[in-house]
Amino acid sequence: MRIVFATDLSDANKAAIESRTCLECLDNIGVREVHLLTVVPDNVSSGLPGMEMATDAREALKTQRAVFEEAGFEVETHVARGTPHRRINGLAERLDADMIVVGSRGESPLRNRLIGGTVRNVARTAVRPLLVERIEKTDTGPAVKKEHLFQNALYATDFSENAERAYEFFPALTGATERATLLHVRGSEQRGDDGSDQEARERLEEMADELRDRMDIDVETNVRSGAAVEEIVAEEERVDATTTLIGARGTSRLRRLLLGSTAESIVAQGNNNVLLVPPESATPR
Fold first, then answer.
1. Averaged confidence pLDDT in the chain
2. What Pfam families does the entry give (predicted)?
3. What is the pLDDT of residue 121?
4. Has residue 283 been placed in a domain?
5. Which among 39, 110, 158, 204 is least surrounded, fewest beta carbons within 10 Å?
């Protein structure tokens, strides 16, 4: 498996890369080739202010590259200039990467460009599955919020074609996932419809049986009612999920608007790692 790991060279991304547990999770799902990418916006000079680890991006990448190489990965580094999300998606497409990995927070001079808006823009335009790894501030500095990336997966589905594509990505997590929860959230307009509730539970159970057979993991199902984002976040907490797996919407020029408020809100506001799987017909922007 080949991944593009986008880094802003901040202490936060350094913490994510140096987490041995996270590296083991990537290894367990078959990642062998890592392409480390940092993007320098056009309006920032090559001598990035505030970088303590090196005087330029290429030197800084050497430090992060060494961590991956010591863990046994094949590594290439890339420094690009331009719009971050375009460069990230462009490299992933060119390399035919299996996944893009980005951190959700950072403390570098590029924070507003690379960590805030870029995560959303990568999510809205991604042509490859996107893993958003949560990084939080602690008393001792930045740290990954949940180290065991794929150990306990929550899959949220509305039974759409895009949700089905995310479900089909599950087997790629074999070796790292020990437990999964399959969730369907019924909107307020469906409350009181016992037939709809029963149908959803039966569909989830069929999917759960398939996962048990294919991955040999523990699987449970649940149907909740209410606002999708609130119920997904509540389920994350209930089952102590380490990653939320969800499908993105939209394949047209309006895709930036059609990602779907649920997926975008989970990426932008959630507290969990998120694995976002784009539509198969998604095209690069």
1. 81
2. Usp
3. 81
4. no
5. 158
Question: How many structural domains are present in the chain?
Answer: 2
Residues 260 and 173 in one domain: yes
Domain shared by 180 and 131, yes or no:
no
Q: Which two tokens stand for residue 58?
A: 């290429």
Would 282 be classed as within a structural domain?
A: no
The token duo for 157 is 């589905």
| Rounded mean pLDDT, 63-75 | 92
How would you write the chain as a 3-class SS string? CEEEEECCCCHHHHHHHHCHHHHHHHHHCCCCEEEEEEEECCCCCCCCCCCCCCCCHHHHHHHHHHHHHHCCCEEEEEEEECCHHHHHHHHHHHHCCCEEEEECCCCCCCHHHHHHHHHHHHHHHCCCCEEEECEEEECCEEEECCCCCCCEEEEECCCCHHHHHHHHCHHHHCCCCCEEEEEEEECHHHCCCHHHHHHHHHHHHHHHHHHHHHHCCEEEEEEEECCHHHHHHHHHHHHCCCEEEEECCCCCCCHHHHCCHHHHHHHHHCCCEEEEECCCCCCCC
Residue whose token pair is 């029963």: 198
Q: Same domain, yes or no, for 186 and 272?
A: yes
CA distance linking residue 134 with residue 147, whole number of Å:
9
- Domain boundary among the residues 144, 173, 201 is at 144
Domain membership of residue 46 (yes or no) is yes
- For 196-212, the pLDDT digits (tens) are 889 999 999 999 999 99
